[in-house]
Amino acid sequence: MARGHAKVLVLAGVGATGLLASIALPPLLAPSGASLISDSPKEVMDQAWQIVFRDYLDINGKYTPEQWRKLRKAMLAKTYGSPKEAYEGIRGMLSSLDDPYTKFLDPREFKELQIDTSGELSGVGIQLSLEKDTKQLVVISPIEGSPASKAGVQPKDVILAIDGKSTKGMGTEDAVKLIRGQAGTIVTLTLKRKTQTLDVALTRQRIELHAVEHQLNTTPDGGKVGYIRLKQFTATATKDMRLAVQDLEAKGVDGYVLDLRSNPGGLLVASIEIAREWLNEGTIVSTKTRDGIQDIKRATGRALTDKPLVILVNEGSASASEILSGALQDNHRALLVGQKTFGKGLVQSVRGLSDGSGMTVTVAKYLTPSGRDIHKHGIDPDVSVKMTALEAQRLKLEDLGTRRDPQYKVAENTLVKQLNTLKASAKSSAKPGVQAYSPTGANLPSALPKN
Predict the structure, then answer these.
(1) What's the confidence (pLDDT) of residue 110?
(2) What distance in Å separates the CA atoms of residue 449 and residue 214, rounded to the nearest whole number?
(3) 210-269: per-residue pLDDT in tens?
């Protein structure tokens, strides 16, 4: 039986979003017992098995090649009366890895993933994750402007039930099936928020994702700040970011605040390319597979601006957001303001299977330029600013990126301090015989105390 070439899609997000590219791979490994997989469902099962066998990065110490071979033999020895039965078998097989990010997608789910990548979502606008330790469904972040966002759904909310059906033992795929539906219909989520339990009725709608929004802000002392909000790393995010920076540069901004709060991630390539728009030189990120191979991505000397930058982050800033934040923080290109980020340092690829289904599989972990593995730990901000529940509740969508936004206010003040330091340095260097200290230069005497 001829084998087609697999398709690789690389994810850097918490949710199932993220098409990097379609590239040809070598044919999958030839099975040792071809007679066991003469029918299509077993063919698909074997493709999924071999993808894990070849590429899976063991993140929990639960995977060994020997056990995986035994599991393949046992799974292919069974009889499956329908593709649905085989799909459940594949899900069971993958669940033995105890990795919530390695999962099977039936043809409908795989198609939805491709639709999501195009920049549109159908449903209520929630990014979900399965908490590894508690096995609870957790909201990573609501999508701005979505029914969930307007209803006040918050990051870290636990979804206890969907239309009265308990989510205990439910995976993200099953939850998505229940939450998504025809536009105009209602779905009720039972949420746990700390000690509070509440029911939230949401009207489903078609959601268009606009990855980047920007505006020109003026500080109390008349400075010009370029505020850019990046909501998700979609296929258009790199272009949208470039246009935003170019527009703000033309308006003569003094510096920037880049808002990555509640950005769940998305395309790995977008995080790298956007980092290159801010960073002229240095490492951006490195990825490490189970074989120890590191793929290092670096800046290419094509930054759009060198003006001071402050990045806003919170506990909903995940994956691709953390790649960008870590790259700019480690290279001393930006200061981070806000709260510790989510902590997802794993890379998944999405593989299309022969019957139109697919799977995501954890294939690597990523490290920040300084070598930090932030998985489960997150990235600590340089300036910690928490937002109280009351402040978050009172904050309206139109308040984001204004001085009515408590975290933005601190970010703007942090930027102003940087700008004032640069102005003072420029004045000092303009004096005869006085050289301003640069941490990347050799002018050490200018940094030493004078007698």
Answers:
(1) 85
(2) 42
(3) 789 999 999 999 999 999 999 989 888 999 999 999 999 999 999 999 999 999 888 889
Given a cut of 70, the residues of the chain with pLDDT beneath it are: 1-9, 11-39, 114-122, 209, 429-451
Could you say which of 141, 146, 317, 319 is catalytic? Answer: 319
Is 319 an annotated catalytic residue? yes
- Residue 235 structure tokens: 């296929």
Q: pTM value? A: 0.71
* Residue 422 neighbours by CB distance under 10 Å: 15
CA atoms within 13 A on the CB side of 323: 34
**Residue 280: what residue type?**
N
* pLDDT tens for each residue of 289-318: 999 988 999 999 999 999 999 999 999 999
Looking at 344, 349, 357, 405, which residue is catalytic? 344
The closest of 122, 132, 126, 264 to 200, measured between CA atoms, is: 126
User: What is the maximum alpha-carbon separation in the chain?
Assistant: 88
Q: Is 344 a catalytic residue?
A: yes
Could you give the domains of the chain? 8-110 (3.30.750.44), 120-208 (2.30.42.10), 212-346+365-418 (3.90.226.10)
**Residue 20 confidence (pLDDT):** 27
Which pLDDT does position 13 carry in this prediction?
67
Q: Which of 330, 340, 349, 365 is catalytic?
A: 330
What's the CA gap between 75 and 95, in Å, rounded? 13
